[in-house]
Amino acid sequence: MGTAAAVILLRERQIVERFQQAAATAPDRAREPSELGVHGGVAFDRLRARAVLRESTRHEYYLDESSWIALRRFRRRLVTVLLILLGAAIVMGWVTLVR
């Protein structure tokens, strides 16, 4: 399962990079995903659902860079919190065993 998540995150990053390279970062510069070599899929759908990719006109999308930055910050914070909780659990387990 972890591998699948990593693949999806990698694919999301690749999609974002293609929109950035095409300068499709505003409604007036929206492009069809197929023009950029993007053909839907789970990663594309996730980016749309999180408003990272926004539809400008029918079948044309652009990258909302502020949404992308916010999503990346959220993910970093989530990983940090999870690591802190994991560390706390390990310490609590160790303390319990030592007694």
What does this protein look like?
By secondary structure, the chain is mainly α. It has one domain. The chain is built from 3 helices and 2 strands; from the N terminus they run H-H-E-E-H. The chain has helices at 2-21, 42-49, 65-98; strands at 53-57, 60-63. It has a two-stranded antiparallel sheet. Helix 1 crosses helix 2. The longest helix has 34 residues, at 65-98. It is elongated. The mean pLDDT is 93.
Q: How widely separated are the two ends?
A: 36 Å
In oligomeric terms, what are we looking at? single chain
- How many helix segments? 3
Number of domains: 1
Beta-strand percentage range: 5-15%
Question: SSE order, as H and E?
Answer: HHEEH
Describe the strand arrangement of the main beta sheet, using strand numbers: 1-2
Structural class: mainly alpha
Radius of gyration: 19 Å
What's the average pLDDT? 93
Give the fraction of residues assigned to helices: 55-70%
Shape: elongated
| Largest pleated sheet | 2 strands, antiparallel
